[in-house]
Structure formats: structure tokens, C-alpha cells
Amino acid sequence: MSNKEVKAALKSARDAIRNKEYKEALKHCKAVLKQEKNNYNAWVFIGLAAAELEQPDQAKGAYKKAIELEPNQLLAWQGLANLYEKPNQGDVKGDLADVYQKLLELYESGDKQKWCDVCNKLVELYHQEKKYLEVAETWQKLIRMKQEEGAEKTELHQLWKKMIQLLKDSTRNQDNKTGQLLLTAFEHALDSADTVPGEDHQSLYKDFIQCLSKFPHEVARLEKACHDMMALYPTMTYPLEVLCLHFVQSGTLSEKALHCFSRLLEMDANSGPGIIGFGIKCLKENKYKEAVKSLTEGLQKTNQCPAAWHYLAEAQMKIHEHRNAVLSCNQALEAFGTPEGPNFQWKNHTLQLKAEALIKIADADAAEEAIKALEQIVDGSSDPVVLALRGRASLNKGLMDQASKISQELLLSHPHLAEAHALEGLIHYSQKNYEQAEKSFLNAVDKKAGIAEYHQYLGLTYWFMSDETKKDKGKALTQFLKAAKLDSYLGSAFCYLGNYYRDIAGDKSRARGCYKKAFELDETDEESGTAAVNLSVELGDMDTALSILNDVTEKARPGTAKWAWLHRGLYYLRTGQPSQAVADLQAALRADPKDSNCWESLGEAYFNRGSYSTALKSFRKASELNPGLVYSIYRAAALEQILGKYENAIATYQQILKKTENYVPALKG
């Protein structure tokens, strides 16, 4: 076949393809290849025809042969791109990306529009594959090309915004290079905005700041962006809120941070981050109740601040709301999620705080949960303070051998650690080895004097050691006073002071004051509440007694605060107010339906009210629960007599006389 015939055959192949006669085209191409096996156009036409005949493998082979012959010719590359773009081509995205890269290279010095089209296709392909770095780098090339062509500022602005859109999901699994390209896109988009200040520009700035806040290492850039936005939009609270949240999460409370909190609250008194910031300020200033109030309120208004839950738990621990502190720690841990970067440290601190709260709750279930929390602390096994907590949790769980083993190991490896000596003291104290406990607690106090709990346990050690140490002002009393001074929220220290002033010093007035303070600090402390009421009655101060009881009963949920209902019911019974006595004694029985004495008192209240049948039932219930309550059995007989049930009354009187021959009221009855 001559050169002229080859050209004619290729023309025939081209015409056949144009007329969709693909098999015919293949015949012509094969004839050419018999003569010239390296004919570029023949291989390209075979690729085209085979692709249309749905013979992708043959098409791909033909295009690749053509590319091998002429690597810098466009036709085969374009054909291969068209082939890979067809649906049902299997997993060819990686190959297609390589083809697009080559096409960009070939179009670069020629057809700029086609270069841009391929560039868009390549970016779309990378985006589908979540290859964000390649997306960013390729899109930047497109912008550079447009800049070289002298594109308008508006067009470039839209291109930078498009880049932000393409990369917005990349912050979840960010590599630093992609992150930097995204932040650069934001900065260019902000610089190229038409209307400044303006609505679109403001919205873009918010997105930029939100994006920056996800990069822990971009602190300086975040602060600058927030200040720049505040200068442009002085009435907007958003940049200040982000700054406040940043300061909270970073765990630093600098002058800058405090200024930020107060400025935000001046602009918006209801701002969640501002209120949280104020709560943390209160915590640092030892205003714990205000801290709890503000942090709780702030957290109701914003859910973007996991660290605030940790601070709330800290404040709750300071006022000994241990169960609430555990709940706050759980919220914090849930919000931290899988910790990375700064959250890693937060999670460790929160797990330790949760364990401390659970240990203070001091029951076996809480101890088990504390051990689980401590096990989750990364590198906790090498932290002596964490080990000491583990020892305390084991002690609370009743695992004495385990607690002793931890204590001995810590005293050998960390003899200067106060927590190690305190653990040893608690073990001795629980075994009533008070002399050894004294030595351990004195060592703990020597190593760390500012811990109220150590002084309290030392005081309790003296209290139980002997009558001599209990009465010695320089022993138990001194330690309880130190504990109360170091921690003015430690209700139990005031309760123990009350015990001292009542039982040792005989100072009822001072004892009452201590019990009252203990009860104000911990309204679940029935011992202190009861003692404060009883001493008020003994001192003839019924107003104070009633004030305490009224306060408790107003707040009490049904079935709780039995002691308060019972005390007030008995007061009403004594003072001739039987209807109020009935209501209060019924409330006491809802909390403890098996209290025979309470049923007896209720019977008395019904009797005084004139409700004889109900009184009879109450006295019978009392004697059922406690057959030894002779008075209740007698009152039941007397009521049967009043109600005209004489035979029953006689039988009941005889029942009493069998047990107690000389019980005068029964003989009289």
C-alpha cells in the first residue's frame, strides 16, 4: 500500500466513524496497520471505533499504543479521557486523573479555555475522592492562570470562595498543608470582596473565624482575625464569643481573657460564652456558688464549650456536690469525644476529677466506677496521684489488700507525696489503728498543709482514739477548726465541731450554730439538721427550729426528709394543732411506712382531732409493726371502748394484762 493509499484508507476510516459505521472504520485502520504498524492516526481511530462498539479493553489498548508512539500528541489523550469518563468503566479514577494531568500539560501553552475545563474536571474528580490537598493545589493553579490572564477582581473573588466551598469538609481530617491553603483562600476571598463592610463580607469573616478556631496551632491568627473583625463590625458579638470560647478551651485566664469576658457581657448580658467566662473568673476567685450558677446558665446557652463542663465539675467539687460533679464530668467526656491535641489533656484531667468525685461519694458502686475512670487515663499507671486515687477507690470497695499494696508501693517510690501518706492513714483509720493513723495523717499534713480533708481525718482519729484525745482542745477540736477554716464548704467539719461543743464543751449555743452551718452546707445531712432542731428546742428557740423544719419540708420531694416531717409533726402534736400534725406525720410515713413510733404518734394526732376510727387503725398498725408497744395496744382498747366495741375492748385489755399484769391504765379500762 503506497503512501497515497494509506492516506485514502485513513480518510475512509474517518468518514466511516463520522457515519457511525464503526466496524467499517476498523477494517480500514487494520489495512493501514498491515502496511504501517506504527501509524498514530490508525491506532487513535481504532480506539474511537472500539469505544463506540463497547469494546473498552481494545479501545484502551489502541489509545495506549498511540500514546506510546506520540506521547505529546493530544488526540490519543483526549480519546482516553473520553473512554474513562464513560459510565461503567470500573475503577479508573486514578488513571483518569493521570490523563487529565497530561492534558493540562498539553493545553497549557495553547487552548486556555480547554485547560480550564480539564482543570475543573480534575478538581471535581479529586473532590469525589476526598483528596483535598490535590483539590487545593489544582484549584490554586486555575486561579493563578486566571490572574495571569488579567481576570477581574470579582471573578477571582468567586474562585477563592469556590475553593473554600471545595475544602470546607477537609477540616475533619486536616493535614497542615491543606489547612494552610484553605486559610489562604479565606484571606484572599476577604481581600477581594467588593463591599467592605458588607453582609457577604461579614458572613465570610464569620466562616473564616469558625474555621480558624478548629486549628489549635493558629492561636495568633485567630486572635488577629477576631480583633480585625471587631474593628470592622463593632456591634457584632460573634468574634468576641469565639475568642472567649478559645480562652476557656485553652485553660488560660490571662488579663486579656478577663477583659474579653467582661467586654462581651457588656455587649450582651445573655451571651453563653460571656457567662461561662464570668463563671470561670468566679471559680478562680473562690466564689464557688456563683461559679456553679454562672457556668450552669452559660452551658444552657451554648453547647460549643466542653471545657466549661470540666470547670463546672471543679466548682461543684469545691462545694461538695459530688454527684452533680460526676454528671458534669460525664457531659465533658461526651463533649470531648475522641481526644486529640488539647482535648487529650482535658479528657485526662476530667477522668481524674470524676474519679475524685466518685471516691468522695464513698460507696462500693461509686468506687467501681472510679476505678473504671482511672483506667481510662492515658499513662495513668505511671502517675503517683492517680495511683493514690486507685488505692482510695479500692479501700472504698473493701479491697483492703489491694489498697495496702498500692499504699506500700507509693510510700517506697514517692515518700514525699502527701497523697501516699493520706492513703496509708485512711487504711489504718478504717482498721481502727488510730495511733498509726495519727502518724500517717501528720505526715500528710506536713507534706501538704492546705488540705482540709487531712485535718478532718486527723481530728476524727483523735476523736475515736481515746477520751483524753477527744477532750484535748489541742487535738480533735484544733484539727476540726483547721479543716473548717481551710474549706468553709465542708459541712462535715462543722458537724464534728457541733459534736465537740455539745458533747465535750457543753456549749449548746455554739454547738447549735455549728450544726446549723453544717446543715445549710449539706441539706442531706440529717444528723446535723436533727441536732440543730433539738438544740433550738432545748434553748427555747422554737422559731429557729421551725424555720429549719419549714425550709426542709418546703423543698422535700414526696417520700423524703422523714426526720423533718416527724419533728414538725410532733411539735404540732405538742402545741395542740392536730390537723397539721396529721399531715406532717403522714408525710413522714411516706418516707418510712414501717416506723411503729410514727404510726403511734399519728394515732395520737387523729385522736386529738376527734377522728377515732382512723386513730384506732393507726394504733393497731403501730402494734402490728411492734407488738412491744404496750401504749399503742392500750390506746386501741380505749378507742374500742369509746366507739362502743366493748367486747373487743375487754379482749384487748386482757391481752395487755397477760403481758404486763400491773399496767394500771389497762386495769382501769
Describe this structure in words.
This protein is mostly helical. The protein has a domain at 1-92: Alpha Horseshoe (Serine Threonine Protein Phosphatase 5, Tetratricopeptide repeat), CATH 1.25.40.10. The protein has helices at 3-18, 22-35, 40-52, 56-69, 74-85, 93-107, 112-128, 132-148, 153-167, 176-191, 199-212, 219-232, 238-250, 255-267, 272-284, 288-301, 306-318, 322-336, 342-361, 364-375, 384-396, 400-413, 418-430, 434-447, 452-465, 467-471, 473-486, 491-504, 508-521, 526-538, 542-555, 562-574, 578-591, 596-609, 612-625, 630-642, 646-659, 664-668. It is elongated. The relative contact order is 0.02. The model has no long low-confidence stretch (mean pLDDT 90).
SSE inventory with pairings:
Blueprint: H1 3-18, H2 22-35, H3 40-52, H4 56-69, H5 74-85, H6 93-107, H7 112-128, H8 132-148, H9 153-167, H10 176-191, H11 199-212, H12 219-232, H13 238-250, H14 255-267, H15 272-284, H16 288-301, H17 306-318, H18 322-336, H19 342-361, H20 364-375, H21 384-396, H22 400-413, H23 418-430, H24 434-447, H25 452-465, H26 467-471, H27 473-486, H28 491-504, H29 508-521, H30 526-538, H31 542-555, H32 562-574, H33 578-591, H34 596-609, H35 612-625, H36 630-642, H37 646-659, H38 664-668
Helix pairs in contact: 1-2, 1-3, 2-3, 3-4, 3-5, 4-5, 5-6, 6-7, 7-8, 8-9, 8-10, 9-10, 10-11, 11-12, 12-13, 13-14, 13-15, 14-15, 15-16, 15-17, 16-17, 17-18, 17-19, 18-19, 19-20, 19-21, 20-21, 21-22, 21-23, 22-23, 23-24, 24-25, 25-27, 27-28, 28-29, 29-30, 30-31, 31-32, 32-33, 32-34, ...
